[in-house]
Write a structure and sequence with these properties.
- The protein is an alpha/beta fold.
- It folds into two domains: about 160 residues, TIM Barrel, CATH 3.20.20; about 35 residues, no CATH class.
- It is built from nine helices and four strands.
- Strands 1-2-3-4 form a four-stranded parallel beta sheet.
- Strand 2, helix 4 and strand 3 form a beta-alpha-beta unit.
- Helix 7 packs across helix 8.
- Its cofactor is Zn(2+).
- This is Guanine deaminase.
- Keywords: Hydrolase, Metal-binding, Zinc.
């Protein structure tokens, strides 16, 4: 008897849950073999009331458009774990497709399933994954650093259902932020005259995201 049958899940909209979905091809095939009566991997969770607006699923590298639509309808979220996916050769999540299908998405580390649990590293690897998809002509453009920064901040808070409290600097939200001094004596960031032309904050933030520790 399958574990899902034993548990006998009934809808509990207040229960938060997280798991993995479509991390690698072998896993997707294994789910097909174990659950032949379900349409796809996502359907296994959905039919057992485990895909709700309180659900966060890691990876999602091989989700079809049909599955992404279900995620969107249920309000479920995806945690993009680029370092883990690259380190384990699992797959490449097409974040642009996820966003196109209006699915909530933030960045994660798969509990350091790769070699780092740093959110700065997750930002950098997310850009690299998007660039690889562009190089291989899967997409016509790559994610911008601004878009990836949003995934790490507001995107993550939306995925966790905390965007009314944290995620950006809207009035009334908690000050959940880092105070960075890029001019510190041991700072890895070099500031030049050109950084002060136009919007200085954007230039400095970009350097911090790529060089910060």
């Amino acid at each position: 008897m399958h574990l899902t049958d034993r548990l006998g899940f009934t809808p509990r909209p207040w229960v938060e849950s997280d798991s993995h979905v479509s991390e690698n091809r072998e896993e997707v095939e294994a789910v097909k073999s174990l659950f032949p009566d379900y349409k796809n991997y996502t359907d296994v969770y959905d039919k057992n009331n485990l895909l709700t607006n309180k659900t966060v699923m890691a990876h999602g590298c091989y989700l079809s458009e049909e599955e992404l639509n279900i995620f969107s309808e249920r309000g479920a979220s995806i945690a993009h774990c680029p370092n883990s996916n690259l380190s384990l050769s699992s797959g490449l999540l097409n974040v642009l497709e996820v966003l196109k299908n209006k699915v909530k998405i933030g960045l994660g580390t798969d509990v350091a399933g790769g070699y780092s649990y740093s959110m700065l590293d997750a930002i950098r690897r997310a850009v690299m994954v998007s660039n690889v998809l562009l190089i291989n002509k899967v997409n016509e453009k790559s994610l911008t650093l601004k878009e990836v920064f949003r995934l790490a901040t507001l995107g993550g808070s939306q995925a966790l259902g905390l965007d009314s409290e944290i995620g950006n600097f809207e009035v009334g939200k908690e000050f959940d932020a880092l105070l960075i001094n890029p001019k510190a004596s041991d700072s890895p960031i070099d500031l030049f005259y050109g950084d002060f032309v136009g919007d200085i904050s954007e230039a400095v933030i970009q350097k911090f995201l790529y060089l910060g520790m």
